Amino acid sequence: MIPAEAFTTATLRRHPQGEAITRILAAAIAAAHPGEAVRRALQRQGDTLTVSGRDYDLKAYRRICLLALGKAAPAMTAAAVDVLGRDLSAGLLVCKQPVEGLSLPPVVERLAGDHPVPGARSLRAGEQALALVSSLGADDLLLCLISGGGSALLSAPPEGLSLSDLGALTARLLACGARIDEINTLRRRLDRLKGGGLARSSNGAALISLILSDVVGSPLEAIASGPSAPDPSTLADALAVWEKYDLAAHLPASILECLESAVETPKPGDPLFARVQNLIVGSNLLSAQAALRQAEQEGFTPYLLRADLQGEARQAAFELATLLRQTCRTGEPVAPPACLVCGGETTVTLAGDGRGGRNTELALAAVTELAGFPGVLLVTLASDGEDGSTPAAGAVVSGETHRRARELGLTPGACLARNDSYPFFEALDDLLKPGPTGTNVNDLVLMFAF
Question: How far is 28 from 251, CA to CA, in rounded Å?
């Protein structure tokens, strides 16, 4: 668990409600703890494993195997191993960083993949995962633990698509501001494991997937590109994304050729999924609700704005800052002292060569909108503790941030034009740096009116 003190920044140290706000942030992250989510989902009595009302007789299977992928894989795996014990025959854990200090049985192999752009380690992990699931049959059980980041960490491109092609595609999609659902619409058709590919490769084995959602609305096919889920999208949908972002002008023709010739992904209703159980065990909404419960305990009036925030980070900042000012002036939609929470995932279209991620960019865009306005705080928070390629999870903005920045010679508008949000808040000591949280359920924006 991440302690509340880990969320302290310069503004929160000075603010009368700063400690309360750090406790609210910590509560939001704690609610998405992946190990606890797995333990809630796996109920075991003797040799009977019950998952959301469905019973599995563990002694009826020749082998019980585990595949965990994503940023939350270590904690999810540890919890699953506690439940399965010696009944676990084999396992593979794939996450972003090498796993240190985690006690697991020797049958569980550990690998690190590459993120956010798939690399050689991702390819190795993908081949290992394919080898594991391909060894299964109808008398085996596979427990799959899926969390955010799995799309890049585990990669098994089809013949004709090189690793460099796949990396170039991912990098371009991230840079052009494509939404995660659009990115995954392409990924599902360009990988042997994604878009139901894992289920197809498991030769009819019973399959349980416990899923920690990092996608707005939690569509199964979008989380880690849906390795165990049917894919409702079509080739026409994938080509529409390709054309929308003019990818042909920036990427090798081999990618389009592979996209058009790829084997169709399995669709909803396919008998392939008759023995597959997919279950969402954690989400952005659950974290938002936990933040609101803690806010109420701290004396704030809680208000959930939405859990499906998408679009450009700077446009979202304008809309949210406008609402925050309105809350202070009119008491609508809720009277101060208030905590308004919004969840989702924005995007950034890169125009400069600065450093930062979508959360610090949203915060930076809010600086001018809240300049000089008393009694407000806006806090952005990536639930995984990392914003883009930076070690920050987000940033804190108050009505004083603009003035403090100018005193340091920083111009918010110029920094925003360069997409240079990280150095801006680093100079102000207002970056949230709790460190990797071991979970990932999208982002939160918390707004406080006093």
Answer: 39
